[in-house]
Amino acid sequence: MRRKKIFCLMATAALLAAGCAKSEDPINIPSGTENNNTKPSANTGIEIVDDGTAEAPSVQIVTLPPLDQNTVAPSAETLPPVTEAPQQADPQSQPEDPTQPASSSVIVNPPQPFDGEAFLASLDYNTVLPIPADATATTATESQIYTYGGIYRKNTGKNVIYITFTQGYENGNTLPMLDLLDSKNVKAAFFLVVKGYVNKEANIPIMQQIVSRGHIVGSHGYNHVYTNTLSDIDLINDIALSKAYISAALGGYNVAFYKAPYGDLCVRDVYVSSKLGMVATANSFQYYDYNAEEMPTKEAAFEKLKKGMSPGAVYYLHVSQCNLEALGDFIDYARANGYEFLRLDQE
Question: What would the pLDDT profile of 217-247 be if each residue is shown by its tens digit?
Fold first, then answer.
């Protein structure tokens, strides 16, 4: 992998001994997307790149790609919020039918200039450090997730389901998925990887569509790497930079949710994201829905989705062809069996 050399500080990320259990996520990334074996180092912009050979990974010095060069990073505290589009009150209006297409929309501001280097240089690590001894880089249990304000399930006393997607690529499926969700009046959360997706200008209109149609955009990290391989500083950098970058790309959007790459949520991830103003989100259901070479049939995907039904379940899906084909039928099936679908920030 060849990258332009921008600056010369060098560091390597400390590998933590304890690891998160590996869960399913893309193993067959289309060309042109982020390298899933890339591990970010501190605020130097250095990455350790595993090129797949038997030798030790090589060290590459790269830039943190800004939306616009020569600008200062916006402050997370002063970014303007996304505002709801004005709507006229109708005294004769009836409560919205959850099975009918939604009519509301959200105004999305244009992208703001953002400089990743300047942002990291101004980051106050004292708001996060020191990390508590019990916030380890090991797989978080359900109780540990709740301890630091994360989500595993919600509303377990009700028949509700929360749909979430993660994506570092989308293969043209996102807009059709948004149309499907609109037709079913279901609001979802989309967790996006910055490097390889958000930092591609062609994807900005898709992101704007996600927000304007009333869905949530969350962070799936800056680099798509196992977080248990990162030092404390590297993890803070990755999560903080992803939040700020996505916010700037969406004109000051408030990025309030974080989902760890590969769905491997460690206790430390939950703690760090909470200190950086985000709610870490785990998943109570997922299945093998991401490999384009081994994509389940519509029928198989439908059966898998049915098996995940439980009160307060958080579905961890990908914007893949099998879900595009099966999700509509599953939504109808779940509703027919007494379930409703809520957005991740709803109770």
Answer: 999 999 999 999 999 999 999 999 999 999 9
E-state strands within the chain: 38-40, 46-49, 58-61, 83-84, 106-107, 160-167, 189-192, 216-219, 257-258, 279-280, 285-286, 313-318, 340-342
The answer to whether 270 and 144 are in contact (CB under 8 A) is yes
Q: Tell which residue, 143, 137, 196, has the closest CA to residue 166.
A: 196
pLDDT digit string, tens, across residues 29-61: 233 333 333 333 333 232 322 333 333 222 222
Read off the pLDDT band of 171 (50, 70, 90): confident
Please give the tally of structural domains in the chain: 1
Residue 56's CB: how many other CB atoms inside 10 A? 8
Better pLDDT: 22 or 245: 245
Closest by Cα among 170, 216, 137, 237 to 29? 170
Tens of pLDDT along 274-288? 999 999 999 899 999
267 within some domain: yes
Instruction: Give the residue among 186, 194, 190 at the shortest CA–CA distance from 174.
Output: 190
3-state SS class at 261: helix
Extract the tokens encoding 88: 């006229």
Which contacts (CB < 8 Å, 24+ apart) does range 34-39 have?
34/168, 34/193, 34/195, 34/196, 34/197, 34/223, 34/224, 35/1, 35/196, 36/168, 36/224, 36/225, 36/261, 37/225, 38/195, 38/223, 38/224, 38/225, 39/13, 39/223, 39/225, 39/229, 39/230, 39/234
Res 332 pLDDT > 60? yes
Q: What is the CATH number of the domain that holds 285?
A: 3.20.20.370
Domain that holds residue 304: 38-75+101-342
